[in-house]
Design a protein that fits this description.
Blueprint lengths: L2 H22 L5 H6 L6 H12 L3 H13 L5 H4 L8 H11 L4 H9 L2 H34 L9 H40 L1 H13 L9 H9 L14 H14 L6 H4 L7 H32 L4 H5 L4 H10 L6 H37 L5 H25 L9 H4 L2 H12 L5 H21 L18 E9 L2 H20 L14 E8 L10 E5 L5 E7 L5 E6 L5 E4 L7 H6 L9 H7 L2 H17 L5 H12 L6 H13 L22 H26 L4
Antiparallel strand pairs: 1-2, 1-5, 3-6, 4-5
Helix pairs in contact: 1-9, 1-17, 3-9, 3-14, 3-17, 4-14, 6-14, 7-8, 8-16, 8-17, 8-18, 9-14, 9-17, 9-18, 10-11, 10-14, 10-16, 12-24, 14-28, 17-18, 20-21, 20-25, 21-25
């Protein structure tokens, strides 16, 4: 980075901090700090949802997976696309809660302060782990930008505390108002991040493989297709089969509603219900469209940097190295702008997560158990101290664990602990406090504690009945070699020459020419079914034996290999306890694919807690009718932007709990489901059309320049 890049970065940091100081004078009450006084319109809600939903790890993940797997790598983040139309419905819920935290919702619905406190513990753990991943992502991507050639990761010890300090300054001082103002600015930075590298990459494609004198920028798409095989542009691939996408969609749909930040970005901070809906849906669609830009950037980098040995060792650095090579030579501050954009993606999430977690601790722990009569100044002080602790803890976890990308799946799975009590409590009067506790405890034991504790049982890791692995599958395709294939083959030949000097006798790779027919083989390694981190082979043949060979519909030769009973393994990592049920009902675990194993981990996490909650509710005493009447009529009462008017409407509803019973979908039943209104239906349909638009855009981009 040059001096001008550092100037851009410093100006960005100072601007964010200044916003926090400016907003500080408006923070007088808890509602000001945690929800900005519920005064935000469509624009702020849109960029709040966009910022909170877009982490620094998202463009990194898409860039990395697109580089390694082609355009289908877009699904590493685009899983959430199918959930987006439902946000049109969810947004109303958070506005009608009229609470500062989702923990408050659990307290009200189930008449249990302890359940609200338990939810707070979940929020603290969830966000500290999640933010540590985001901090790590930023550090790894910024290394090639700030310190080219550095491989020891020492930059993080300086960069991460600085980032954390800036987030603390504007978030702790200015609260959600400052966070929303910075999210508005950071949102534009994220959009810039999504497209900044594309024109420079296309120009370099034309310069390297075409004629800059006669060809324009759009010709870069033609050269992109010339350099890469056709399979690189497929939107769906073997890594992301349809059933896996559906499983992730259902898990995300069920779990997203209880992620703590949704009380703010989901609509709780909005001026009106319409602002909540438009902000949440449009903000998330902004991310979906940006995802297409990230995937295109990954493809361009694959064509330009396919032989870069540094990326070959660590694909996470695709984004950083691309910025260095494309923007660095210009020396006009664009590298500094790219770093600022990456930081914006992190900080726009971190500020929101910090504030909602602070609110949980203040409302559902401190105020509930330690000091119910504290002044607003005391609550604000506690909230700010907690915010510092949350960010500090996330930075610390990132510093001590630099490779935490695998933890991202926790964002999908951990929320199922509270998902069933939320959904059932929202729509079924029969859901009880005891049933909610039983479900939460059951989920913690089965999905968190048992997988961690069972590996400690002596002999379990060496028990061969759990040494079940998927098959090794090799897929060989015969096709014309692309220039990228030729470049990679050249890299293999060079590596062979270096190795041959030390270890003579290795077979030399054959030289390859563009257009020449060659066989490409991609092998999927075996995966342990019961052990999350795989296995160690203790004895037996080193390589599995061929058990089947066939041609698939595309003409590819598929070879399946399996380890025989003579091979012994020792499991590693967490124990996938839920696969015991699949074995009990007769599922052929050994016959599963890697993708099927991943997908089958999810249905039980979605369905079983709901079954537990329903059965436990039928066997336990219902909550008081009075509290249920107040809760459900409040959730049915439309909110008013004017607080006084909204209070009057609530009083009318409390006086007549059956005020909206004529709108029930199942009159006379215990199900509190209202008939959808015209606004619900129209908004949902338009959102579904948005889903189609994103998919069509992705297909169009993937085919630009194709012959």
């Amino acid at each position: 980075m040059s001096l001008i890049d550092y100037i851009v970065l410093v100006v960005y940091f100072l601007s964010m901090a200044a916003i926090g100081v400016w907003c500080m004078k408006k923070v007088k009450h808890q509602e000001d700090l945690f929800l900005g006084g519920r005064t935000f319109g469509k624009l702020f809600q849109t960029f709040a949802a966009f910022g909170a939903g877009t982490g620094a790890n998202d463009p990194v993940n898409v860039g990395r997976n697109t580089y390694t797997s082609g355009f289908s790598g877009i699904w590493s983040v685009l899983f959430w696309l199918l959930v987006t139309p439902f946000y049109w419905i969810f947004a109303v819920w958070y506005r009608r809660m009229r609470h500062l935290t989702i923990g408050d919702w659990f307290v009200e619905r189930y008449e249990s302060r302890a359940l609200g406190a338990a939810y707070s513990v979940f929020g603290i753990v969830f966000y500290m782990l999640y933010l540590s991943v985001a901090f790590t992502a930023v550090s790894k991507v910024c290394e090639p930008l700030i310190a080219p050639g550095q491989v020891d990761g020492s930059l993080k010890t300086i960069l991460l505390p600085i980032i954390g300090l800036v987030v603390v300054v504007y978030g702790v001082l200015g609260g959600l108002r400052a966070a929303y103002w910075t999210d508005l600015i950071q949102g534009f930075f994220i959009i810039i991040l999504s497209v900044l590298l594309i024109p420079f990459g296309l120009a370099l494609l034309v310069e390297n493989f075409g004629d800059p004198a006669s060809e324009g920028l759009m010709a870069g798409f033609k050269h992109l297709h010339e350099q890469l095989p056709a399979a690189s542009f497929q939107l769906a691939g073997n890594e992301f089969p349809l059933y896996y996408i559906v499983c992730i969609f259902l898990l995300n749909l069920v779990g997203i509603v209880v992620q703590p930040h949704f009380i703010a970005t989901g609509g709780g901070s909005a001026k009106s219900e319409n602002s909540a809906r438009v902000g949440l849906v449009v903000g998330n669609f902004l991310k979906r469209f940006c995802t297409v830009g990230w995937a295109l950037t990954g493809l361009i980098m694959l064509a330009l940097l396919s032989v870069d040995p540094e990326i070959g060792k660590d694909p996470d650095k695709v984004w950083g190295l691309a910025a260095v090579k494309l923007l660095g030579p210009l020396d006009i501050g664009l590298v500094g702008l790219m770093v600022a954009c990456l930081l914006a993606a992190l900080m726009s999430s971190a500020d929101c997560y910090m504030l909602v977690t602070s609110a949980l601790v203040v409302r559902n722990c401190y105020a509930a158990y330690l000091d119910r009569e504290a002044s607003e100044e005391r609550y604000l002080l506690v909230g700010r101290v907690v915010g510092v602790v949350i960010i500090g803890g996330a930075v610390f976890l990132s510093l001590i664990s630099y490779d935490v990308f695998g933890q991202l799946k926790n964002a999908w799975e951990i929320p199922v602990i509270f998902a069933a009590p939320f959904w059932i409590g929202m729509f079924w009067r029969r859901g009880t406090k005891k049933a909610a506790w039983i479900t939460v405890i059951f989920s913690v034991i089965v999905f968190v504690l048992l997988p961690m504790l069972l590996p400690l049982v002596p002999g379990l890791q060496e028990n061969q009945s759990y040494a079940v692995t998927t098959a090794e599958v090799s897929r060989t395709v015969t096709r014309p070699a692309s220039p990228a294939d030729v470049a990679r083959r050249g890299l293999k030949i060079e590596a062979w020459r270096l190795k041959a000097e030390k270890e003579p006798g290795a077979l030399e790779p054959k030289e390859l020419k563009a257009g020449e027919e060659f066989r490409e083989t991609r092998t999927t390694a075996p995966r342990s079914v019961f052990w999350k981190d795989g296995f160690v082979r203790l004895s037996g043949p080193e390589k599995p034996t061929v058990v089947a060979t066939h041609e698939d519909d595309s003409g590819a030769r598929v070879v399946t290999r399996r380890y025989g009973p003579e091979t012994r393994f020792r499991g590693k990592g967490l124990f996938n306890f839920d696969f015991l049920l699949y074995r009990a009902i007769g599922v052929d675990l050994q016959g599963l694919s890697r993708e099927a194993v991943e997908a089958l981990r999810l249905p039980l996490k979605v369905l079983v807690p709901f079954l537990v909650m329903i059965i436990a509710s039928l066997l336990t005493r219902p909550n008081s009718k009075e509290s249920l009447d107040r809760f459900y009529v409040k959730m049915k009462t439309p909110t008013e932007p004017d607080p006084d008017k909204d209070k009057r409407e609530l009083e009318l509803s409390y006086a007549s709990p059956d005020r909206f019973d004529h709108k029930k979908l199942f009159p006379g039943s215990s199900f509190e489901i209202q008939r959808p209104g015209s606004m619900d239906v129209i908004g949902f349909i338009l959102s579904c059309l948005g889903v189609v638009a994103v998919i069509l855009l992705a297909l169009w981009v993937a085919n630009l320049g194709a012959s």
